């Protein structure tokens, strides 16, 4: 009888913390749990900083299989380089640090070193793979795409109020909530309300600006902070349209959640969002453009035929979505070949 495949999975500290909800954490949890259901022996090691990451990597036995979350790898590129000389090391990159407008030179260099030293690289979208290749951060032949899956959900019936808008994601500049609020301030129509759900801890100064912008709209915008699973599901069930106004986005876990429920999406034409909406049921606008976003929102609010078409397309697209089992299969194949 052969031993089960084993894996040391190095993830950011708080991967299971309900107050630290992020797309990366959700993805990591699904991979961990999915591999374990398949009989893998998965040892999860949480790292809060570069020192902790280095300690975890040094403790891995020679020749063992190790998967490192890209965020952690970027904290400790020297430790990743050292570990790659004796471990079967793969990096799981949820994003491209170099694509962020505010990325520092040090962060970009750390990303380059970590990715260059890994034996294999798993990314979460075709756009991420192409962006890494374009920036000469990873060779296409060394990169495998494992797109986020979706959790089966009942389709949401159209809400009575077609003006209920929802935006889900950490409150941070790359998510573009400021663009959304500037667009809402321009709307010609008044029959709308908007819920913005997400942690404000990642970028406190930006979050404070978002709170001021929201307040100026006279109570029509609700900032909820992080929602637990039940509250988030309730938010999806009562929304008519999900808005993804990101400046940078590899794929978008909120988009996947909306797609699973047949909810139309209005997204910025950036990163992996166009691919995520390729099957229909979505609208795309230029990123960082409040006027373009406002025009699309006015069209949604004023055109019943547009709403009906997008909802039909969104419901039909549910059949095309990958499952988390598909994602785990892809990751397992890459790890076994490492």
From TrEMBL:
Keywords: Transferase. It comes from the Bacteria. InterPro entries: Glyco_trans_1. Residues 159-314 form the Glycosyl transferase family domain. The keyword Membrane does not apply. This is Glycosyltransferase family 4 protein. The lineage of its organism: Bacteria, Bacillati, Actinomycetota, Actinomycetes, Micrococcales.
């Amino acid at each position: 009888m052969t031993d089960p495949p084993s894996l040391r999975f190095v993830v950011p500290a708080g991967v299971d913390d309900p107050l630290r909800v992020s797309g990366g954490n959700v993805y990591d949890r699904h991979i961990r749990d999915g591999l374990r259901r398949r009989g893998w022996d998965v040892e999860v090691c949480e790292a809060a900083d570069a020192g902790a990451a280095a300690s975890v990597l040094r403790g891995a036995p020679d020749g063992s299989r190790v998967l490192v979350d890209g965020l952690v790898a970027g904290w400790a590129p020297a430790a990743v380089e050292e570990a790659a000389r004796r471990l079967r090391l793969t990096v799981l990159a949820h994003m491209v640090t170099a694509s962020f407008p505010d990325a520092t030179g040090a962060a970009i260099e750390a990303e380059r070193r970590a990715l260059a030293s890994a034996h294999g690289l798993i990314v979460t979208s075709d756009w991420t793979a192409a962006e890494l290749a374009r920036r000469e951060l990873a060779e296409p032949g060394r990169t495998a795409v494992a797109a986020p899956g979706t959790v089966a959900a009942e389709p949401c019936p159209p809400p009575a109020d077609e003006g209920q808008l929802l935006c889900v994601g950490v409150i941070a500049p790359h998510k573009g909530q400021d663009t959304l609020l500037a667009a809402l301030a321009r709307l010609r129509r008044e029959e709308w309300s908007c819920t913005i759900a997400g942690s404000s801890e990642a970028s406190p100064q930006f979050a404070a600006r978002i709170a001021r912008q929201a307040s100026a709209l006279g109570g029509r915008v609700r900032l909820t902070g992080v929602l637990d699973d039940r509250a988030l599901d309730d938010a999806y069930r009562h929304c008519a349209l999900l808005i993804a106004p990101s400046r940078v986005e590899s794929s978008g876990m909120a988009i996947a959640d909306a797609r699973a429920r047949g909810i139309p999406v209005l997204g910025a034409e950036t990163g992996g969002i166009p691919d995520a909406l390729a099957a229909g049921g979505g609208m795309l606008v230029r990123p960082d453009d409040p006027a373009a976003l406002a025009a699309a929102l006015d069209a949604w609010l004023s055109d019943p035929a547009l709403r009906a078409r997008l909802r039909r397309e969104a419901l039909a697209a549910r059949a095309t979505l990958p499952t988390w089992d598909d994602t785990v299969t892809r990751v397992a194949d890459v790890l076994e070949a490492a």
